């Protein structure tokens, strides 16, 4: 059985619905999940609206697929991408797909690929409709992988201080509300042993199954562990050393 980070992935990009400025960070993120053995991007390359993609394709070895818009107002790109995905599926050359789009038209495709046992990862903007998000095994927002620094609102007021600390583009952070805390608690309870402890890595995997767009970075944390530690009113955390290694396993339980 292949390790998760050795999975062969087909990366299919919808040029009409994804900004080209984030391609490098998207491919870096995909590399954490598997090996992008197929990289294709779909669009009408005769249109000036996608001309910005061309340098990125050369730099990242992405194969452009030309698809003319046969009728005004109709998106032929979607059909070409779906047909290619099914051809790749039946070729049995990959272990999963990465569908890069913010278009809900790919909801049925994601569902069909998962029915065939494929891992399906979605990448898109936060405007992506929920049906496409939940049709994927995991969905990642472009906004949190574009290497934009997450910052708190600046208190700088003077001109000199502003020059020394120029403003940094920020990412909108989702609030940790009661619904999210309840999701964490239920997931911990689902996996807890007789003493109430659950292995945090398994908790994270279960949450993604319940909420495919879950990512600690959505809440301003790089990893799940610091997110859980920040909720010390709700959870206890135990770091257990693994014998003869420097590895620590993190366990969590609901605070009594």
Order of helices and strands: EHEHEHEHEHEHHHEHHEE
Into which percent range does the helicity of residues fall? 25-40%
Residue share in β-strands: 15-25%
Shape label: elongated
Count of alpha and pi helical runs:
10
Oligomer: single chain
Cα gyration radius (Å): 21 Å
Q: Which stretches of 5+ consecutive residues score pLDDT under 50?
A: 148-169
Terminal CA distance reads: 40 Å
Structure description:
The chain is an alpha/beta fold and 256 residues long. The protein is built from ten helices and nine strands. The strands form two sheets. Strands 3-2-1-4-5-6 form a six-stranded parallel sheet, with helices on both faces. A hairpin with a 6-residue loop joins strand 8 (235-241) and strand 9. Helix 8 (178-191) packs across helix 9. The protein is elongated, with a radius of gyration of 21 Å.
Task: Please tag this protein with its features.
6-stranded parallel beta sheet; 10 helices; alpha/beta; elongated; 256 residues; 3-stranded antiparallel beta sheet
How would you summarize the topology of this molecule?
Layout: E1 8-14, H1 23-33, E2 35-43, H2 53-60, E3 63-66, H3 76-91, E4 96-100, H4 107-115, E5 119-124, H5 130-135, E6 138-141, H6 142-145, H7 159-164, H8 178-191, E7 198-199, H9 200-210, H10 224-230, E8 235-241, E9 248-254
Parallel strand pairs: 1-2, 1-4, 2-3, 4-5, 5-6
Antiparallel strand pairs: 7-9, 8-9
């Amino acid at each position: 059985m292949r390790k998760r980070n050795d999975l062969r992935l087909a990366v299919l990009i919808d040029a009409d619905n994804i900004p080209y400025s984030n391609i490098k960070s998207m491919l870096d993120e995909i590399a954490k999940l598997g090996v992008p053995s197929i990289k294709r991007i779909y669009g009408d390359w005769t249109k000036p609206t996608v001309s910005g993609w061309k340098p990125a394709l050369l730099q990242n070895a992405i194969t452009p697929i030309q698809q003319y818009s046969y009728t005004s107002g109709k998106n032929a790109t979607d059909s070409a991408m779906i047909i290619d995905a099914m051809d790749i599926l039946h070729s049995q050359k990959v272990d999963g797909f990465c569908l890069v789009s913010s278009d809900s038209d790919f909801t049925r495709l994601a569902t069909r690929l998962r029915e065939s046992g494929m891992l399906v990862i979605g990448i898109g903007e936060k405007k992506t409709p929920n049906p496409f998000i939940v049709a994927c095994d995991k969905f990642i927002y472009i906004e949190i992988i574009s290497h934009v620094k997450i910052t708190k609102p600046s208190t700088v007021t003077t001109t000199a201080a502003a020059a020394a600390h120029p403003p940094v583009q920020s990412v909108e952070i989702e609030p940790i509300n009661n619904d999210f805390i309840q999701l964490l608690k239920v997931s911990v309870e689902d996996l807890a042993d007789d003493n109430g402890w659950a292995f945090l890595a398994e908790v994270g995997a279960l949450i993604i199954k319940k909420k495919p767009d879950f990512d600690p970075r959505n809440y301003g944390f790089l990893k799940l562990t610091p997110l859980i530690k920040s909720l010390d009113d709700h959870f206890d955390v135990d770091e257990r050393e693994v014998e003869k290694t420097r590895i620590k396993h993190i366990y969590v339980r609901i605070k009594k």
